[in-house]
Amino acid sequence: MKKINLTFIFLLLLPCASAIAVETAELLAAITAEILVSPPDGSELIDKKPLIRAVFPAPVDPASVIVILDGVDMTPLANITETGFEFRPVIALLPGRHGLSVSVVDREGRQLLQEVTFTTRTSDAFEEAFSRNDVWLSYDNAIDRPENDDAMPDSRFEGHIRSYSGISERGWRISLDANVRYLDQNAQPVPPRQNGIDAANWLLTAGYSEGDLRLRTELGDVLLNETQNTVFNLSRRGGIMNLEYDDVSLRVFSVMSGQVYGLEGNSGIGGASADRIAGASGSVKFMDEKMEFGVLSLSGGEEGSSFGAATASAPNRGSVFGVFLNSDFFDNRFKTELESDFSDFDPDTDDDVESKRDRAARLRVSGVMDRYHYEAAYEYLGRDYGAVGNQWLRKDMEGFRIGNGYLFGPQTISVFFSRNSDNVRDDGAFPTIVNYQGMLDYSYQGIPDLPMGLSYQKGMQDSTKEPEFSKKLLLYSDTIAGRVHYAAGVMNLGFQAAYSSMNDRTPENNDTTATTYTITPGYNVAGVSMYPSFSLNVSKNRMTEVNTDTYTAALDLRVRSRGSRASFSTSGAFNIVKASDSSMDARNLNIGAGITYEIQKYQTPFFRPAIGLKGAYSRFTDTAHLDTKRNEFTLYIALTAGMSLVY
Amino acid sequence: MKRKSLYQFFAFIYILLSAVSAQAATVSVSPSSFNVPRGSSSIRTVSYLFSDPTSTTTHLVSSSGAFSAAGETIEMNSRPITAAMQNGSGQAAETITLSSGVIEKALLRGANKVIYSRTFTNSCTSVMANIVFIITSEAGASFEIKKINLYFENKRPEMTVPKNAVIKAYADIRFVGSGLLQGRWEADGMVLDSVSRHLAYGADATIQTPEAPPIPTYEAGSHTVRFVITNPVTTMTMPSIIYYVTPAESLKERPDTLKLNSPADEAVVEYGALKFDWERPARAALFQVKFFDSSDSAAVFSAYTKDASYSLPESVVRDKFSAGRRYSWGVKAFDAEEKPVAESEARAFTFKKTDSLAPGEIIAALDEAKFSEGLLKELQERHGLKALSVFPLQSLGLRAIVFFTTEKDVFKAVNALKKDRRLVLVQPNYVMRTMSDPLRNMQHANDLIKADEIHAVYRGRGVKVAVVDTGVDAGHDDLRDRIAFSGNYVRNEAYRAEVHGTAVAGIIAAGINGTGIEGIAPEAEVLALRACRQVSRERPEGECFSDSIASALDAALVKGANIVNMSFGASDYDGLLARLIDKGAEKGVLFVAPSENGRNAKDLRFPASYSPVISVGGLDEKLNPYPNAGIAKKTSVCAPAVNIIATVPGNRYNFMSGTSLSSAFISGLLALSLERGGLIDRRKLPPFKGDICNWAEEMVNIPLCPPK
User: Fold this and answer.
1) Rounded to an integer, what distance in angstroms lies between the CA atom of residue A285 and that of residue A290?
2) How many angstroms away from the CA of A295 is the closest CA of chain B?
3) pLDDT tens digits, residue range B235-268?
4) Which of B133, B201, B309, B614 to mutate to test the interface with A (most CBs of A within 10 A)?
5) Is A195's Cβ below 8 Å from some Cβ in B?
6) pTM, 2 dp
């Protein structure tokens, strides 16, 4: 603090240096070799773009000056002279602590470095206080619509508020991010939407940090990430509390196991355990944070399908206890992950069979070395292992996988191989199926306007030790796919082709093949973008001798003339599905279009109204099912408006 | 009796007709068997097809179904099914849920199959249908979709996006068995894409919406996206997800592409300052340049600039980037309102490996009074270092330690160690190199300054010149009497005679003894301080580390050197050496160092670049600046550098070139001047006007040069 004050005093006295008192001369002499920087070290100011300036102790070569603010080089933006510099940040600084580093070489060849930190606030009351609110309104009124379609409203009013607000002070920080919607239409909305006001999603975050202590609480739509064999990348409604002190962290969480929309489920942290996942985890880092050891425990239940997800599985319930040990001693070159989990899982709570205990284990090593990256893993998943909230885990499996990728010049090559087998308990009631998967992917970008790639995948499943009644399984699968993209100025053209086959080598001979060709031309200039696409999909079932061809033609066109307030957009698709046994012969045409004109007369920087027309036409026929025919046209007049309120 | 016989006859006919009709009714089930996985419930749909030629219009009813295993009924399904018969045939469908509990009960009885049976009856017939469920693992099960999960890029089934934004949706599909998945993406009921993909058990199945056509986002309001599975047939209701399009335009919609110019993609560049440039797009007012570590995509450094180019400063390269490592970079352009207008693709570059640092070595210094063995041990343990050598720097009152670190990025280790406040200095152990090349021509350097005329007056008597260099041959006939002290400061080596140091010492002070050559100051005393080692027997170049040079400079100051000749240099500023030079300069010691030898060199090397040092450029045989005029202008003075005859070990002589020799020449001249007038203020040296004779004339104050 002493240094800061002196520096500040010196800045003030610069114009009248001769008047410096004798008793301060010694102290000032001690700092004359320093670069005098404003804002001074440790200072606090209420400004988003503070003026930053410096005075050098002696003339310097301006080319030697380097100004780094929060780790970003600002030198090119500063007005630099032989005696100092000044600039204002071009992007507003976030409130909080900032680090400024100034380095120069003086005429004597000496390197001088001055580093200061300062704090910015948005107001007296709070270090940071912000609120960004965007309001959008839209009103549609039908000019023409199908008489017999009850799902299509005559009129619809939709309002949407996106609000992101927060405050912070003395290490505390609270923020709320929410999307609130209002819907009013005279037709029954498609669930989970409903008429009235609803919060599409929301997240309340509160945190505190001081030194090595960090506390963070999230409530609302959170993302839960524990370990791969427990819950991983799970986006759900609920709460997470995370406490970190130095190298130790603790976390408790409670979330709903199903996805919800709006205010359904309230905060998501209370209620019955049958439809939620709750647990705690803790970890400690050691050996200079190169190793991390952790434990976790969670339990709960999942009832079935929810918003955005459908399942054929029954309601389940269970608990998991896991331990993990991760290390990274070689700066990402050789990372290890070891995980062991123990579960007590009931896959169907509707039956009278009790839950079962089992375990899972995983060892993974991975690394990145310049242009090469690799991964190798051993995995074991017990026959009865299960984790609520992670239905993507395979069961009853033991094996390994190896993946490598190498980049040499414009070429990239990736190789993957895995081998695993099921029936890990060697139960005589089941066959043991060995599963091999291999993949080779090559891409070439040596011609900048013509990137291309090719990939090949091979799989094999082979059963052994088949018990009575169990059929032999011997299945080969092959997929080869190629892609090429050509860009010529405003035009581009993509072509993709893929052929895959599944060769059933048992007497059932249930072979299938699928071939797909896709052409995607594109045209993009200022104001106009046009992206049509054409695809043909041919699938063949050798056993039933039925071929199914699917033709799809689609278009996405957007036009906005420069300087004009009008824009036009359309998209459409025409689709034909035809089966060789005449079980299907369907044609499906969908076209949507919209024209919008911004009403200049009422426009302000905070209010942007627009009027438009939007229409849709759909036609569906299936000659294989004569009673299936649909022909619909809709036309709406649309009014929209947007407002922004930012603090 | 007759009546009894008649009753018996009708009874017989009834039984016969019943039997005939019962045998005539048949049922076929499709499919009649499934492979189902244990550990989860399975839902399967079957069709019953009935045939009964004897029946007219009636119904067949099954009140319940039964699951049995090993001949024992283990669970009942009490849901009734009715099949309407018409013209001798009829059909019914049933969705059977085989719970994991039923499977477990079968397995407990030692059976690996479950038979599901239903008996259909009416008033005159009865028929039984059986479906076989063979229990197997997930891999061996019949192809079945178990779960589908839809989400957007935010991992949620709901998203708010601006108008015309490019968004994507994903479908994670959990399945058992293997087979051909067929389905389609729909946005508001419009088919975007048809999907036909083989799913082999064990492979991940995440399907995403196509690049073209994109999900329509031109219409404000709420919209839905679905992935509809058509094969395998599933009873699940396909989920949908919601996106809300705001009337506000997306700024990210197909941004213009910013074209990068240089360096070329995958360029391998020198480890040092580097310039990046690109084309300026329309409306661009500000650029953000970002550099990423190619291995973990973390941003290493970034900068803002208003120009369409950016020069990465050398000091930032040393601090944030590592030699021999690959990085990528990209540029984003903003308009005057700070809205993004264009963005470049990422390009990669690799910094060449550098040999300007001693691998893994760090020099740290602390106050001599604070040094102890305990502290040294603690420093090693705390920072994971190993001390290679410890030496005092008496002139600074410091104790220096050379540490070895296993950290590959030495600058990273230096930055970590800098946080230890007990250390007053931490830096890498830099490698400097001498600046000479062997040649075999004649030289006339001494004639340029009329050395004989000067020697008649001044010979450098009483002046101590420290030669910090490779080892000087103290036994050379031309140097034997001139070496006042010789010492070795190269770690783990003994003193030895080498070419470069011997040549430099000879140019400065070779004696007037009737043999060999004459030095510029033939009676000066030489302190031969071996801080550099000759890298090969065939070539004279020396290599010197910061620690050795620091020790040698310290010795020069302690032994009272008046001039210190440092015929070496490096591109890095060396803080430790700068401190020692400052200390000596305070006492009036003159430090002399050569500029640089590279033909295209632009900047002085350190220590010549350091202001207290007298920097010396070269002159070629035609007295033109050497190695080029640009760098010569930055020096204090220039002296002959090409084809200089010099002493070499073993009483031999050779021709050499390089600014190392120019430096030695000037050190000798300064020794003459010192003899003349005592102290010299380096800041008051006469300006060099292109003629070394005139400069020497001013230094020794003797008329030497012909009038112009």
Assistant:
1) 7
2) 26
3) 888 999 999 998 877 644 455 778 899 998 888 8
4) B201
5) no
6) 0.68
